[in-house]
């Protein structure tokens, strides 16, 4: 797939993020914003100050991966090329959005940290990126209302 208006390093990140958003019924702009914010790449392993590591395209923390090992999910799985890490991230993001407390942005920022001050900093940048991605998506993939809905798609027309 050739995407002409994107830098060469973005297509997998964009395609995988959008695909994962659709699969897990999440706003694509939020998944794209988290993906961009995390900014990892396959094979990447970054050490944190607490001795853990963030790995792969979506920078999964090894502490979190330890919890997922009971499902057979390993560091190698999230550190490979392809969409697996994005799917796993969208699954995790959906859990935060569905079950955590707070507004959608606080819940989405819980992907990075639940510590209030860290969450706040992440959340502010996440919102900025999500707005930019929403504009990007709207420009390239304009939508029309579904028949029988109002022009905004918000509620059925009488």
CATH architecture: Orthogonal Bundle
* Multimeric state: single chain
Percent strand = 5-15%
Rg, Å, rounded: 17 Å
Topology summary:
Elements: H1 11-23, H2 28-38, E1 45-47, E2 53-55, E3 60-61, H3 62-68, H4 75-78, H5 84-99, H6 104-109, H7 116-140
Antiparallel strand pairs: 1-2, 2-3
Features of the shown structure:
158 residues, mainly alpha, Lysozyme, 3-stranded antiparallel sheet, 3 strands, 5% strand, globular
Short structural description:
The chain is mainly α. It has helices spanning 11-23, 28-38, 62-68, 75-78, 84-99, 104-109, 116-140, and strands at residues 45-47, 53-55, 60-61.
Task: Write a structural description.
With 158 residues, the chain is mainly α. It has a single domain (11-139), classed as Lysozyme, CATH 1.10.530. It has 7 helices and 3 strands; from the N terminus they run ααβββααααα. It has helices spanning 11-23, 28-38, 62-68, 75-78, 84-99, 104-109, 116-140; strands at residues 45-47, 53-55, 60-61. The protein has a 3-stranded antiparallel beta sheet. Strand 2 (53-55) and strand 3 (60-61) form a beta hairpin. Helix 1 (11-23) packs across helix 2 (28-38). The protein is globular, with a radius of gyration of 17 Å. It starts with 10 loop residues before the first helix and ends in an 18-residue tail after the last helix. The model has no long low-confidence stretch (mean pLDDT 87).
């Amino acid at each position: 797939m050739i995407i002409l208006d994107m830098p060469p390093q973005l297509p997998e990140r964009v395609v995988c993020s959008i695909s994962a958003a659709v699969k897990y019924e999440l706003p694509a702009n939020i998944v794209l914003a988290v993906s961009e914010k995390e900014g990892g790449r396959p094979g990447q392993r970054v050490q944190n100050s607490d001795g853990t590591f963030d790995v792969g395209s979506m920078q999964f923390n090894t502490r979190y991966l330890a919890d997922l090992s009971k499902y057979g999910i390993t560091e190698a799985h999230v550190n490979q090329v392809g969409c697996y890490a994005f799917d796993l991230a969208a699954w995790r993001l959906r859990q935060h959005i569905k079950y955590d407390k707070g507004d959608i942005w606080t819940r989405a920022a819980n992907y990075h940290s639940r510590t209030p001050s860290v969450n706040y900093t992440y959340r502010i940048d996440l919102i900025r990126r999500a707005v930019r991605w929403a504009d990007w998506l709207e420009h390239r993939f304009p939508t029309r209302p579904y028949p029988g809905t109002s022009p905004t798609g918000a509620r059925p027309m009488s």
